[in-house]
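As a warm-up, study this chain.
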Amino acid sequence: MDKVIAETNDEFCRLINRRLTHKLIRLHDKGYELDFGLLKNRGLCCLQSGQCFEEESVSVTLIDQVYDFITNSYKYLHTVETACGKRGILLIEGIYRLHLKASPVSSSLSLGFQQLA
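Now compare it with the structure written out below.
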């Protein structure tokens, strides 16, 4: 019985994480091919090249919120465009600019997610 529940749960997690995977593939198809990480100084770093960017030299757009069953947490999917034309994805456990500030988020905050075509 436990094995059946475990297999069903694993299958459910794969189905849910498939949503995130499909969004990432669509963004890659649109030219957002790089992956970015968040730096302590509010900047971003390209994970492929190691090139770092100051906060002022990037444009970050919130795309969606997804639940990641691998880490059991919500993730916020952002697109990143740098001043030098690099494009990629930032996936973090908060909204980019709000995540950087240590202030509470109002419950009335409206999250205007950009639609993926």
